[in-house]
Design goal:
278 residues, mainly alpha, 10 helices, globular, disordered C terminus
Length: 278
């Protein structure tokens, strides 16, 4: 057996495990929520302004394709292992929320006149459910997919734009509410912190800090929207520290290698000085 075939079999095995776990968690959660007496919904006031865009069903459904591709985009065993654990973590964590805090989608979908576009909507109506809303696994998976796709030299920009469209499509296909998007993004960054790619590598310290800032940014955004919903519009002022946190996180992520190298050099100088003193 060649090393290439072994790697493909490992990727296929990881994909199979994650698919089985996803199907089991999703279907069991759907069964539980559908059997409940009453499942509530939660929407922000501004969500009524979000348009229904039938064409956005294309990127929404493409998420399933990315689910398969991402496992075969891993460059080494470690990346495949981290991807698998993150996928399993967000799936099972989301399943816990689906059961303990079930929510359902509350907007009425408009009829799709286009015959071709109507096919995937009919598929969703048959096999999907209005439950299992928060956190959105479409959103959580999109962030995790990008943690692998960003290392690709080819198709990187295309995949980035596609994943952004996947995130937008969760709202414009009337499949998810904003609260689902916020919790999905938060869950994804929790997985990055709990399951880091370089756990003990000092050169990746700033990259890990970036995830803390991104997580803080999503928490601030959520807090701002809740304060605006239940108190006053002044609560949106918290969007400012949210933006600052995200910018700082991006700065750490973008300059991770340079900043980490500086820290590493300073650490070596400190150690050498210590040795000289001894």
């Amino acid at each position: 057996m060649t090393e290439k075939k072994l790697k493909i079999r490992q990727q296929a095995f990881a994909l199979t495990v994650c698919t089985i776990v996803f199907m089991a968690v999703y279907n069991l959660s759907t069964w539980y929520a559908s059997s409940a007496h009453q499942v509530p919904s939660f929407t922000f006031n501004f969500e009524r302004l979000i348009p229904f865009v039938p064409l956005s069903i294309i990127p929404y459904m493409a998420s399933g394709l990315f689910f398969c591709i991402v496992f075969f985009s891993c460059k080494n065993k470690k990346q495949l292992k981290i991807l698998t654990w993150r996928m399993l973590f967000v799936t099972m964590a989301a399943g816990i929320f689906f059961v303990t805090v079930p929510l359902r989608f509350s907007f009425v979908k408009l009829e799709v006149s286009n015959t071709i576009l109507n096919l995937p909507f009919s598929f969703l109506e048959t096999f999907d459910s209005p439950f299992n809303q928060s956190p959105s696994l479409h959103i959580a998976f999109a962030f995790i997919f990008w943690s692998v796709f960003r290392d690709l030299s080819r198709w990187r920009i295309f995949l980035m734009i596609s994943l952004v469209l996947v995130g937008i499509s969760t709202l414009t296909t009337y499949q998810h509410h904003v609260i689902d998007v916020l919790t999905g993004a938060t869950l994804a960054h929790v997985s990055f912190i709990i399951i880091p790619y370089h756990k003990n590598n000092p050169e990746q310290q700033n990259f890990r800090w970036a995830n803390y800032y991104f997580l803080l940014g999503w928490i601030f955004i959520s807090a701002a929207l809740f304060l605006n919903q239940y108190m006053s519009v002044e609560g949106l002022i918290i969007l400012l520290p949210a933006l600052i946190a995200i910018i700082i996180g991006y700065y750490h992520q973008k300059n991770s290698s340079n900043l980490s190298l500086f820290v590493l050099i300073k650490s070596k100088i400190f150690v050498n000085r210590g040795k000289i003193k001894i």
